[in-house]
Amino acid sequence: MLIRPATAADAEALADLHLDVWDEAYAGLMPAAILLTRRADRAGRVTRWRENLAARTTWVADDPATPGRLLGFSTGGDRRDDDPSLPARELWALYVRAEAYGTGLGRELLVAAVADEPAYLWVLAGNARALRFYEKHGFALDGHTKTEQFGREQRMVRR
């Protein structure tokens, strides 16, 4: 699977991917109205992706069977939390389509975003698949939580 840096030309495909993977990953974990509201604002999501791509590196995986379609993405960067005890790297996002679960694509995107370095991330509480994936790759819950508009998130750290 080819993992590459996203370009501005990927904004629409990234918006569609992001909407799809949230539906797949979060159905039943957050109110359906949130997912519907996100989908109703596709044009706004495309605009935000264009802005995000201009500001930071996002890694994408092309679908070899369907040109122009993406199978996953990841973004990592410097720590955004003020806690100096945390690693300097944060995994900001990592998503793959359900059809790519178990293929190793998530691991490739994780490495692209934060390598095998110490890092931390926030995961939606109740997302058992994501928790297992991150635990498999050396992350552990550290007991910190926060509540965002989409639900409660738990922090995971890899030292």
UniProtKB/TrEMBL annotation:
Protein origin, superkingdom: Bacteria
Pfam family, one: Acetyltransf_7
Transmembrane parts of this sequence: none
Domain N-acetyltransferase: 1-159
Name of the featured protein: N-acetyltransferase family protein
